[in-house]
Amino acid sequence: MANHKSAKKRSRQNERRRVRNTMALSKVKTLVKTLRDAENKESAEVKLKDAISYLDKQVTKGRIHKNTAARKKSQLTRFVNNFEAK
């Protein structure tokens, strides 16, 4: 356990950041899952736009590496372009 006042503050900050980062990464997974479960191509394209926007936002905040986001965007775009109704 932290003994100094500054170390206690740093511990509180790290916990807040950890929770925020976990929520953000969880939302990325949710967006990907909802996109893959889309009913038709039009709804998939709308969900793709949301997912790409959110991924880019997380990159600028430093939560996801830019190449990871680029890879995910590429995979999702390929999925939508080759979309066939289930």
Give your account of this protein's structure.
With 86 residues, the chain is mainly alpha-helical. It has a single domain, classed as Up-down Bundle (Methane Monooxygenase Hydroxylase, Chain G, domain 1). 79% of the residues lie in helices and 0% in strands. It contains three helices and no strands. It starts with a helix and ends in a 5-residue tail after the last helix. The mean pLDDT is 94.
**How far do the termini sit from each other?**
53 Å
The profile of the biggest β sheet is: none
Q: CATH class, anyone?
A: Mainly Alpha
Indicate the proportion of strand residues. Answer: under 5%
CATH architecture tag: Up-down Bundle
Enumerate how many helices there are, as a single number.
Answer: 3
Low-confidence stretches: none
What global shape is seen? Answer: elongated
CATH topology: Methane Monooxygenase Hydroxylase, Chain G, domain 1
Indicate the mean pLDDT. Answer: 94
Name the helicity range.
Answer: over 70%
Number of distinct beta strands: 0
Helix/strand-derived class?
A: mainly alpha
Radius of gyration over alpha carbons? 17 Å
The count of domains is 1
The CATH superfamily turns out to be: Ribosomal protein S20
H/E topology pattern: HHH
